[in-house]
């Protein structure tokens, strides 16, 4: 449920007055206590809802000196989304420099990596991925599965790698950043600030100039398909050569960028944009101002579907997709989604569990084999045994074009149980999506 002031006004307070009517109006003090409790509850719910809203923040810094040229709520805590992959890449470049990895090295793909939500390269468990290909997958496609491949190679598991990421953040001076995964997929505990990512951007330039040019790649070919860089501002802003975009519902549209003019390099971070276009326009205006150029009035430009953007297909799913959802010929409207809900490929209908309200379920991934799906269900059940004790395990084969995947689910729950289960699984690092009875293929 989305909590708003209207919800409180039309839902909670009428509830209090109905309680008074049931009591025959005999106890004013009881009414006062009821209203006090309702007011306290509504305040807590509203505070929680507001805390989940994307926070708009920005900062522009001189890359060489660290001088702050502009800042707006630069220390507001928010979610990094795919900017997270900058730290994954920073640690990858560290490993390349000290010989723990090589660019041509083939890394194994696990079932955990395969199960990641889009955007991704579509890696299959048991296959391998070259380190350089993984780097390009993160830079251009923002591939979540490739991020996990790197994380497992360097940390043994994504959880341990996230601990390494947080330690490195502290070493660099990122005091308000906490990492829980390598990709930026939704996790309420994974937080940062615009200032912290300006620190990481400068560190990337200073510590890894040899590898920084990867961020300038406009596209690369994988599996016979050209994959374009999500940072479309590089194609129109003079001197911009990176760095990374990001988007989730909780974070809004984020961008860490760097540009050079007349021998001077600036680093900028914009967090919580309402759209990819307004985010890019904001960055452009702030960089122009910092470089001493006239403001061209694009800071808060309207959301416009250009011919190029309208012709592209809609994103695969809302995992951590850096592009806005675009339907052919028009802009599509994205519906608000609870933060804990991590999208996966479209789900098959869930059979009703028998009684009303028990048609809900959860999906923990889509896999290339039935065995991998069953293994994921077993692992998920161990993390939330109480919540999932009565759920039925199902692995369903679904065709996607010429290929087929196996969707791993637990069904026979009500909505509250499904969402609580996903919240618990996400907290423990599992991917989970609550599935309603109305979800279709």
UniProtKB/TrEMBL annotation:
PROSITE patterns: SPOR. It comes from the Bacteria. Residues 305-316, 341-353 have a biased composition (Low complexity). Substrate binds at residue 244. Belongs to the peptidase S11 family. PANTHER family: D-ALANYL-D-ALANINE CARBOXYPEPTIDASE, TRAFFICKING PROTEIN PARTICLE COMPLEX SUBUNIT 12. This is D-alanyl-D-alanine carboxypeptidase.
């Amino acid at each position: 449920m989305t909590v708003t002031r209207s919800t409180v006004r039309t839902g909670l307070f009428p509830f209090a007055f109905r309680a008074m009517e049931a009591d025959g109006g005999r106890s004013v003090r009881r009414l006062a206590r009821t209203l006090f409790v309702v007011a306290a509850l509504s305040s807590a719910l509203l505070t929680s809802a507001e805390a989940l809203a994307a926070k708009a923040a920005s900062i522009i810094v001189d890359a060489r000196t660290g001088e702050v040229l502009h800042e707006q709520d630069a220390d507001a805590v928010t979610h990094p989304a795919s900017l997270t992959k900058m730290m994954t890449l920073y640690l990858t470049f560290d490993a390349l420099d000290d010989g723990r990895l090589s660019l041509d090295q083939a890394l194994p793909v696990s079932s955990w990596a395969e199960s990641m939500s889009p955007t991704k390269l579509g890696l299959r468990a048991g296959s391998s991925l070259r380190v350089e290909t993984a780097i390009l997958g993160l830079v251009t496609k923002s591939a979540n599965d490739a991020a996990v491949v790197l994380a497992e190679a360097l940390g043994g598991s994504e959880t341990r790698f996230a601990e390494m990421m947080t330690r490195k953040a502290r070493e660099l001076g990122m005091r308000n950043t906490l990492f829980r995964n390598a990709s930026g997929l939704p996790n309420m505990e994974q937080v940062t600030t615009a200032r912290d990512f300006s620190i990481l951007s400068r560190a990337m330039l200073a510590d890894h100039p040899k590898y920084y040019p990867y961020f300038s790649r406009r596209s690369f070919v994988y599996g016979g398909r050209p994959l374009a860089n999500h940072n479309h501002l590089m194609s129109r802003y003079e001197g911009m050569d990176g760095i990374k975009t990001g988007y989730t519902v909780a974070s809004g549209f984020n961008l860490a960028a760097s540009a050079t003019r007349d021998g001077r390099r600036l680093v900028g971070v914009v967090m919580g944009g309402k759209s990819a276009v307004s985010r890019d326009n904001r960055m452009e205006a702030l960089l122009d101002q910092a470089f001493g150029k006239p403001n061209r009035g694009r800071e808060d430009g309207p959301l416009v579907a250009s011919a190029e953007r309208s012709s592209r297909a809609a994103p695969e799913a809302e995992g951590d997709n850096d592009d806005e959802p675009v339907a052919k010929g028009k802009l599509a409207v994205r519906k608000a989604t609870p933060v804990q809900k991590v999208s996966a490929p479209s789900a098959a209908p869930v059979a009703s569990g028998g009684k009303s309200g028990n048609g809900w379920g959860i999906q923990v991934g889509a896999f290339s084999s039935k065995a991998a799906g069953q293994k994921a269900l077993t692992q998920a059940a161990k993390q939330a045994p109480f919540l999932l004790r009565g759920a039925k395990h199902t692995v369903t084969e679904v065709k996607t074009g010429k290929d087929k995947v196996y969707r791993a689910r637990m069904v026979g729950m009500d909505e509250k149980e499904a969402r609580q289960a996903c919240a618990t699984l996400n907290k423990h690092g599992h991917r989970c999506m609550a599935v309603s009875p109305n979800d279709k293929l």
